[in-house]
Amino acid sequence: MMDHADMPRQGDLDGRGNLSERALGDFTLWFLQACIDQVSFMTGLFDLDTLAKRLYRHVERSGLKPEAGRLVEEALTRGEFDRGEASRISGLPERTARRVFNDVIALGLLASETPKGPSVPTLSGGRSGRAVSEAFSGNVRA
To answer: Which of 20, 27, 37, 127 makes an SS bond possible with 7, Cβ 3.0 to 4.6 Å?
Structure first.
């Protein structure tokens, strides 16, 4: 369809110059429909509710405590949170929460610029890049 825009004129009433105005209109319509399709697809991927569900499944299948999913969801919702809030967010004792928090960082779902800085969501993948991309696509395997 992309080369359709460069078609030669189809008769005397098909625009001016060497190229077809009708074909250019068809190409423009196709291109805009493709753009709308991609925006709809990406909107669905980044919907916080469905993204959080996929990441919960990913955390569960990674062997982490279920409370680790709460940490990831909190980072997605708020954008960042302080490490000291891990216990409150997860509902775990301080030491256990710190251990779970470090496991989530090791998994590559959260990151921090400094050891005591705020945590932000990251989808770089860390040691599980393929699993994170699968969580984004919704194809998390059992």
So the answer is: 20
Residues with Cβ within 8 Å of 109's Cβ and at least 6 positions away in sequence, in order, are: 55, 58, 59, 72, 75, 121, 122, 123, 126, 132
Strands 110-111 and 120-121: antiparallel
pLDDT in tens, 34-44: 999 999 998 88
Predicted TM-score (pTM) above 0.85: no
Comparing CA positions, the residue from 51, 69, 54 lying closest to residue 107 is 69
Of 84, 74, 89, 88, nearest to 120 (Cα)?
Answer: 74
For the record, the structure tokens of 133 come out as: 């991309």
CB 4 within 8 A of CB 27: yes
